[in-house]
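Risk register update: the risk that structure generation would not scale has been downgraded. Supporting records follow, first protein first.
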Amino acid sequence: MSLNVLGLTFSAVVFLGIFIAAAVAGMKIYRKIRSISRQAFGTENILEGFRQMEVENSTTPKSVAGMTSLYLPKIKKDFPEFQYDEMKVRAENALTSYLLAISSMNPSFLKEGGQELRDHLSMKLAMLREEEVRETYRDIKIHRTELANYRKRNGRCIVTFQSSLQSFYTKTDRSGKLLAGNAQLYTQTKYNVDVIYIQDRELVEKETDLSLGLNCPNCGAPISTLGSKVCEYCGTPIVELNIYAWTFSNIEEV
């Protein structure tokens, strides 16, 4: 047998060995993937497993920061007249109308909100027009709404509601091509809705920072803590005006 034949035979054996080793390794990897898929998704088809996971995610509501039991007593202490159930419904209505305004590209759909929120919505719609895309929310359903935060700053109190919701959300380009979302599966998400305590709705909307503080009627000192019943400088009782109002200032996805 010539050296050439021996060389070819040796090369064939080496190639066959490599092929068998690769086949064995591939089979082990395949079996491992099937095992992982079966354990994770209950099926050996990993693509079907991901599909099942996608469907499950589309029906599982997002959890919300349930801080109502912590913040509501603090809010009621500062504002005994605060009606939690009524304000929660208003927050949900504001959120729903905000999303419908985006879907319709029409700011008039926003039913509640101060100038700050309306400006935010206008900027959102302007950005969508500039990018030539549409965001649509269909069949909106709110699962749960809770208080998520309560803070005081810049002469106003801010109460934050957090809502989990589902909708058929889609983002499409000018030609109708789907860029994000799913028209057949629900998208689960959650939003923060801020409502602020202000003095006079008409006056505040003319302020650049959309806030308005109070002053003591006796000494003229600023009332730094909204909800205060007496002036911390001279002790004069503070009579709360009936023109106080709550207004929605911000809505954002979290």
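Supporting record for the second protein:
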Amino acid sequence: MANTDTVADPTATSFFESLLELFRQAHNPDLCQAQNILLRRLALQGDVVGSRVPAPQNITEIGGYLNMLREFKQEEMLAQVLAGILGVAGPNPPLGWTSSRPPLRMVPLTNDRPEGASQSAIPLWFMVRSDFYVALQQGRNRLHEQGCVLPLSAAGRRLPPASSLGPSPTDLLPYLGRCLELVPAAALNDPAADLLALVRPAGTTEAFRIAARVLAPGSVSVPAADWDAQKCDSSSCRVVQITGGQFVPVAPILASAGFYSPTPLPEPVTILSTEWTRLTNCTGLIRGKTKLGDELEQLYDTAEIGASVFATMLNWLWDGSTFVKP
């Protein structure tokens, strides 16, 4: 009886395992680019699905295929077909290697999650736009050097489809990767023990500011001072005094990364208030010139934008606070 056992090719097995691992771990720009190239090459040349269209038998059939490509405006593919017929080099760059990925992307950043009452409410990571990544990480490092943390929250957003029920979103900055939020649970419960606090110098009438509490001495010392701080419950907020507290205002550090809190900072009225947590980054937006469509194209491909509720708003202009119809 013939031996029907299948013997696996170790080289092929190793190759496909490496390929699958590449697909599973495509989480940084280089791997995403490699994944994109491989998938496009498989789709265009890998014969993933066998063709049901027979090869052309004569010049008339060839002309029919060329006319079809021209009718569907597939100019680059048309040039590739002609190059294949003539046996010459195709257009440069060759079809299948051209990346249509937007120039920017949302990338994950590991969050600050120290032990404590608020730890369970802090996400393991948050998403930040790739061009803001380095500056934000540098700002967080400055806080870490002073013994502080900065728990943040931001998830990647998909554009709402054009078929969505209800009105279009009025807050557009989150869809442009220009918003972050401080984790609400990190403050307002017990200013002397929370990770963050809304404070002002004791005995003054200055506006409250967001500050990070020193959890342990860092490489950069922070002087102790007396502070007034907001402490809230489910029905109200009140001002409490902290003697000899070590706090680092986060506004100057976040500003160095382009992120700012609302001005004036909204004061909480209960523990559920979250308006104070919002941070926005409007760097590079020019009043009366920057178009919504140009900003969307930084993060999304043309097809996704065209299928979204923003497809009819692409010429809207930045007015200093939002995008408005010209």
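DSSP finds eight helices and twelve strands in the chain. On this basis the risk owner (M.S.) recommends closing the item.
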